[in-house]
TrEMBL record:
Organism: Symbiodinium natans
Taxonomic superkingdom: Eukaryota
Name this polypeptide is given: YqjZ protein
Any Pfam family hit: ABM
Signal peptide residue numbers: none
Domain annotation ABM: ranges: 2-48
Lineage of origin: Eukaryota, Sar, Alveolata, Dinophyceae, Suessiales
């Protein structure tokens, strides 16, 4: 899905973590870009498959990032 998402208008990037649970955060330039991604046919099929086969529950949050700071130890 990341490869497909990266081809969509307004896609900015993705971060993902997998251990006991998985989390993926995708970044988009606008609410319109998010809506278009939600309607993308292959993405919709993947969501339905996830509901049927993999996930007991999940949450979707749409939020605006106002600032982003990064620290790297030298």
């Amino acid at each position: 899905m990341v490869e497909l998402a990266s081809q969509q208008q307004g896609f900015l990037g993705v971060e993902s973590a997998r251990e006991e649970a998985g989390i993926t955060v995708s970044y988009w330039e606008s609410l319109e870009a998010i809506r278009a991604w939600k309607k993308e046919a292959e993405h919709t099929l993947a969501q339905e498959r996830g509901k049927r086969e993999w996930y007991h529950c999940y949450a979707t949050r749409i939020a605006r990032v106002e600032r982003d700071y990064t620290f790297h130890k030298p």
